[in-house]
Write a structure and sequence with these properties.
Shape: elongated
Largest sheet: 2 strands, antiparallel
Order of helices and strands: EEHHHHHHHHHHHHH
Strand content: under 5%
Number of helices: 13
């Protein structure tokens, strides 16, 4: 790949920064030990005011192409760093006030090098995520009924305790969410029957 003086603007920073392919290669050589995964590079780059992985990819098409330009062995598979449940809980306590919606959190998480919603969901239900953030879950009645319908074979015969055990395993809304929405666990099942009948008439 040519190391000419093609210029672009790094739009991932708060100010305009002009880079050339040659400059990026020099930066890569100087910080080569940090050129592992894009996630790790972005965290390092943010701390040291360096171009992001996305900016580098604007020039080299792929992250591996850039690493190959620096003679870094791209055949080595680098496992993603794992994050514990306790660490996620701490993240939620510190950054939870920024949570509004799941997609909005993913954008915020990407900007701040934090776990995505998908990662959060591996350990906590959405209700639990919001509870750590001191926010009330914004679960609509339709959403709750759609979940119940998808799992109706379990939902209808289950007691509150049985549903909670099932819901916890699959990261679904707890029975408390249904009680808050419909008044009681029994009324939730009645509402689901009415919802199914209404849906069948359409």
């Amino acid at each position: 790949m040519s190391t000419g003086d093609k210029e672009k603007v790094d739009t991932n920073k708060g100010r305009k920064t002009i880079y050339t392919i040659g400059i990026l290669i020099d930066i890569g050589k100087e910080h080569i030990e940090h050129l592992t995964s894009k996630r790790k590079w972005n965290a390092y780059a943010k701390e040291h005011n360096l171009p992001s992985a996305q900016t580098i990819e604007n020039y080299f098409e792929t992250w591996n192409s850039f690493k190959q330009e620096l003679n870094i062995d791209t055949s080595i598979v680098i496992s993603k760093p794992t994050i514990s449940k306790k660490e996620i809980e701490q993240v939620l306590k510190e950054h939870g006030h920024n949570i509004e919606t799941r997609s909005q959190w993913d954008e915020y998480a990407k900007e701040n090098n934090l776990p995505s919603y998908k990662t959060l969901k591996k350990h906590f239900t959405w209700e639990e995520v919001l509870s750590f953030a001191n926010k009330q879950a914004k679960l609509t009645n339709d959403y709750l009924l759609e979940i119940a319908f998808k799992h109706k074979d379990v939902f209808f015969p289950s007691s509150q305790r049985k549903w909670n055990e099932y819901a916890q395993k699959l990261k679904l809304p707890s029975y408390n969410a249904y009680v808050r929405a419909f008044g009681s666990w029994k009324k939730s099942k009645v509402e689901l029957i009415l919802w199914i009948e209404k849906k069948a008439q359409k």
